[in-house]
Amino acid sequence: MIGGSSKKTKRRIGTRTLRFILAFSVAAFVGSGVSYAKPKPPPVATLNEAVCTAISGVWTANICTLPAGTSRTVTSSFKIGQGFKLDIIGNLTIQRDATIDNSGTIMVENVDGIPIVQDMDDSSWKPGLLVFGALNNSGTITIANVVEGTEGITVSFSVDPAAPGGPSPFIIVPGTLTNSGTITIQNGDQTRGIKNLGTIANSASGAITVANVADIDTNNNVGIYNRRDGVPSPYASIINGTVTNAGSITISNSGSPADYGIYNVGLFTNSDTGKFTINEPSQGVHDAAVGLYNAGSFTSFGMFTNDRGALTETLQTWGSFNPAGTMINYGTTSATGTWYNNLVMINLGTVTNYGIMWDESAAKTMINYGTIYNYGYIDRGTDKGICIDEPSTDPNVPPGSGC
């Protein structure tokens, strides 16, 4: 009996001892700060001589120059700090999982570019900087390509198979360009500054100036081309480029009637803090370049100012030209310039018109549901809101022309 009891006691003591050791070990492990959290990613590299060499650039005094004829892909993210510059004369691709964060300077002046597989009907245009991943700018970007058939920056997309059982057999992953700094577009002749099939977001502190310049006899010069395109086989789908402006976009382009500051066939939104301005072209009133061409969707919740255009017996120039799209104003619009509509243009906000609003749509679908103060001229359209004819300030425009 004594012997049997002793064995049970030893087993109980042994069990208590084992529990104590395990409890102490766990407490010591937790107390030591050791955890199973994922390891932190390595720090993002900053543009320096080593990073420049990795993309086949030439490093000189804080400037990395990608020479003509050089074509490289960014597979690892990096930053461009203040006082540093990336100058793209050749061409560069940002891979989908990579990011360039710029708080310094990027110059895009490519003399050649990369054929784009996605753009089945558009592959002849070749970008200097092709974005499948992300380009974030809080510094300065200048686009100055002038070689025919080039695009400065192309924001594109990639396609992934979707998870089984999902609503779609594939997922479209857009490249992104975000701006909280300054972007100046000054491409020349038969070129495009930026083409977008992904997502462009201009934040409240961002400023984009569209100042592309072409000879009067040159066609197909575009500052920003917000595109709509088909996704190539085997994916039967349409993708729309998306632009959102919460900061300022100013159009001051010059050229012929077939040259455009912004050519929109995608989705464009001017947010409630956004300021969208079309100025007179730099080459004067006889410059016939179009400020905004819309055959997509353009919606404004903020401020829209159109001060470009004239309509006389000898001259027709357009600040805003809407031949096949939808334009809706919820915000405040002011104009001394010209507006053309041939599909749908709707006002649900306030318009002060010193210029010419011209409607050639078959069903008179330039429609006012809001308020128009008209000091200028309104041709046709439909008024279902408040339209007040004010005394004209232009001797060539008869007072009370439109309401």
Task: Give an overview of the whole structure.
The protein has about 400 residues and is mainly beta. It is built from two helices and 45 strands. Strand 32 and strand 33 form a beta hairpin. The longest helix has 30 residues. The termini are far apart. The relative contact order is 0.06.
Summarize the structure in short.
With 403 residues, the protein is mostly beta strands. The protein has 2 domains: 1-37; 45-301.
What does the secondary structure layout of this molecule look like, with pairings?
Elements: H1 2-31, E1 45-46, H2 49-54, E2 58-60, E3 63-66, E4 71-74, E5 78-80, E6 85-88, E7 91-94, E8 99-102, E9 105-108, E10 126-131, E11 134-137, E12 140-143, E13 150-155, E14 157-161, E15 170-174, E16 176-179, E17 182-185, E18 192-196, E19 199-202, E20 207-210, E21 222-226, E22 228-231, E23 237-240, E24 242-245, E25 248-251, E26 260-264, E27 267-270, E28 275-278, E29 290-294, E30 297-300, E31 303-306, E32 309-311, E33 316-318, E34 320-322, E35 326-329, E36 332-335, E37 338-341, E38 344-347, E39 350-353, E40 356-359, E41 366-368, E42 371-374, E43 377-379, E44 382-383, E45 386-389
Parallel strand pairs: 1-5, 3-6, 4-7, 5-8, 6-9, 7-10, 8-11, 9-12, 10-13, 11-16, 12-17, 13-18, 16-19, 17-20, 18-21, 19-24, 20-25, 21-26, 24-27, 25-28, 26-29, 27-30, 28-31, 29-34, 30-35, 31-36, 34-37, 35-38, 36-39, 37-40, 38-41, 39-42, 40-43, 41-44, 42-45
Antiparallel strand pairs: 2-3, 14-15, 22-23, 32-33
